[in-house]
Amino acid sequence: MALYPLPTAIILNRTTPFACRFFPKPLSSSLFSASAAAVSAAITATLPQHLSYGPSLYKGHKTSHQNSDEENFTRVFDITALRVPAEQCFSLESRLRGHLLNWPRIRNIARVAGDDIDDELKEFIGNDISTDDETLTVLERRIYGKGEGDGEKMCSVLYRDKLAKTFNSIGYVKFENLAKISRPKKKKWKREEKEGNGSERRGYGRSDMSMVEVVEEEGSGDEDFSGLLGDDFRRRKWSGSTRLLLLDERYANKGIEEMPEAIKAVLKEHNEESTRLSFEIVRCKLTLLYNYWQMNEVLEVLLPQGMIVPSAFETVGHIAHLNLRDEHFPYKKLIAKVVLDKNKPKIQTVVNKTDVIHNDYRTMQLEVLAGNHSLVTTVVENGLYFDVDLAAVYWNSRLATERQRLLSCFTNNDVVCDVFAGVGPIAISAAKKVKYVYANDLNPNAVEYLERNCVRNKLERKIEIFNMDGRRFIDSIFASEKARPITQVVMNLPNDAAEFLDSFRGIFRNRHADKQFTLPRIHVYGFSKARDPEFDFHEKIRIALSEVAFEVQMHKVRLVAPGKWMLCASFVLPETVAFAK
């Protein structure tokens, strides 16, 4: 992973143990090259007092090998575990739940390397190894070259030669390691491997976020055959499949005498009953990898102290849309890379809006910060598919709930007129429910995507599309004799929609008084920064229609900025306005 420069130098205040000050300096060529030691020192020296429990990048200790930027976020924690037989681990988990590790995204049950039985060996050991000592002895001869009462072991060379002459790759567990002895060792931490039969094998006790290792006790007199039989087999004699119940961090590095009475009772009870399936306390290392830490935890370490960590962003298909503050601009590449890492594979592109929307087409000026540079994506909403090009059209995923609320106001007999349709999130969704839809937008690119989305969702027969100015569209659609009677009008252009309301004055003035007509219900959106935003927007509507006596239903959609509300006003067009001259 190639991260981006961290434009800070970190200076620790020696008089205050946990103070960390950041001063800007020119960008370095690598994120951790010039300041790796400083970042490491800051992480260990700035441990907040409130992080007394649970995992943190400020706690634990680093691994000795940290050759990549991701490994700088690897932390190792010393914990204690209770080793129990696999078939009893779940019942004991419920019994000891209050004393087990309770860290987020970490299971408190872990596998033990070398203890699980391959399917090929189950026929040799039967169902219960604790009652069949003869079968276990045969199995130990196959694995270790020696069973109980066999005398001295053969040396590694002679034993390997005997195995090569006696067994083949099917009849001997881990036999493939014989051909790998002279090869360079691969990385100890392996990802998931696909076996030939299509099943999956995971590294024991390890995932892409964490790994649990048992700390082997030194001083065992048995010969180590791990290089011969594989790293899973160590000095300890095999006594059946076991699991590790990870104990709470407060019991780390403590002996049996310091354990709570519940754990002591389990050890005493089961060790008296069983001769071979022993329960024991073991020391373990819990390694948390880069993928374990969440986005805000990584950014909290990388960004200067006291800076607000950007944690929220809008998702449009595979694109993450950030709205960074001015203070974040020197770190925008770094922030984008972390956002991309922590949201893969769903997020493939990270962009930031560089300027406010101030054009008639409502398009945004976007800067690609990380990932691929494609701004064409597909959004799924209400079971419908919408193709969107953020560089050429407008889309706001945060209005999905509002669009759903608006659709709930429509009935099967409605005819909807969407004056500012965009790529069709309201028009196409309404077409599934209502009788017919007239959709319009000034942006030719939006109209192109609107037509494409209608065909993709197989609704092109229920939607008629226009590409013209909003005022001209309102005049022409209500003046048309061929158009169906419109019952619902949507005007979702918050910046300017209220200014188009004067187009409804006199839309029925040329109709005969005795001819049947339907007054449409209008849903108009707008912004307000007033202290009473609902009253302020209501006044704008009354001024635009030159009418006072009519009822308006107000709905607060969302707070788009401090003190700035987006609102939706719904009202039936007054008859005096529709027939005005």
TrEMBL record:
Keywords recorded for this protein, A-Z: Cytoplasm, Methyltransferase, Mitochondrion, Nucleus, S-adenosyl-L-methionine, Transferase, tRNA processing
Keyword Signal: no
Cellular component, GO, one term: mitochondrial matrix
Catalytic reactions on record: guanosine(37) in tRNA + S-adenosyl-L-methionine = N(1)-methylguanosine(37) in tRNA + S-adenosyl-L-homocysteine + H(+)
Binding residues annotated for S-adenosyl-L-methionine, in chain numbering: 403, 441-442, 469-470, 492
Keyword Zinc: no
Signal peptide: none
EC number from the UniProt entry: 2.1.1.228
Annotated compartments: Mitochondrion matrix; Nucleus; Cytoplasm
Highest taxon in the source lineage: Eukaryota
Ranges of residues in domain SAM-dependent methyltransferase TRM5/TYW2-type: 313-575
GO aspect biological process, one term: mitochondrial tRNA methylation
GO MF entry, a single one: tRNA (guanine(37)-N1)-methyltransferase activity
UniProt cross-references to Gene3D superfamilies, sorted A to Z: Met-10+ protein-like domains (3.30.300.110), Vaccinia Virus protein VP39 (3.40.50.150)
Subunit organization: Monomer.
PANTHER family for this protein: TRNA (GUANINE(37)-N1)-METHYLTRANSFERASE 2, TRNA METHYLTRANSFERASE
Protein name as annotated: tRNA (guanine(37)-N1)-methyltransferase
Source species: Solanum verrucosum
